[in-house]
Amino acid sequence: EFEKLVQMNNELRDTDQRNLYPIIISRPEGECLSENNPCPLLLAFHANASIAQNSFTFWVSAAKQGWLVAAPQSFQAMWKGAYTWDNKQIAASEVTHHLRSLTQKYQIDGDKTVLSGLVGGAETALYLAMRREIGSLGVILINPPGSISSVLDECISPSVDYSVSGLRGYLIFGEFVEESAKKRIKEFKNTLNNIGIQCESEEVPNVGYPFESAYSISLLNGLNYLTGD
Q: DSSP alpha helices (H): ranges in 64-162?
C-alpha cells in the first residue's frame, strides 16, 4: 500500500510539473528583439514553497520600464504547488540553461543584468551573483531570510576584491516584518558594504511579507540604484 502511495505521489508530482511554465517572460511590447535596441534583463526568483506564477505580477512593473523580465520556475518539488531553491547547484544549472535560451531568442544588454528574489529566492539571486554563475550588476533582495548570511559566507572568496567587482546590492523589507528580521537585514547590509559591495536598503511602509503593489515601486528604486540611473 505504501509503494502504491509513493507511485501515486510521483505521478501527481509529474502532472503538477507539466502544468508549470519553465520560465515566465514579460517585456515591453515589440521590444528586446532588435540588435539596435537590446533590453536590460531582470532574472526574478520566486519564494521557496511557491511557484513562479504566484508572484509574477510583482515583477511586471520592471517590464513596463523597459526591462526583459524572466522568472524561472524551480523544479525542486516539496509538495503540490510548492517548489524550492534549496539545492543551489541544481538551481544554477537550470538558470544558466534558461539564460542561454533567452540570449538566443531576445536581444539582451549584457552589461545590465540584475538578479532579484523574494525571501528564499533572494538566497538564489545572491548565490548566482557572488559565484559569478550569472554575470550581473548585482542583486535586489526582498525580505531575505536570516539564512542568507550563510549563503554569503559560502560564496565569499578571499581572492576577490569586491570593491572593484562592480557588484552592488539593494535590500527591500516591509515595515511590518519582525524587528528581529529588520535587524538581521541591516546587519547583512553592513556586511556587504564592509566587503566592498555597495549596498542600500529600503523599508516599505505599511506592508509585511505579502508582496503588495507598494513593493513594485521599491523594485524600480532598486533597479535604478544598481544601474546608476
A: 88-105, 120-130, 148-155
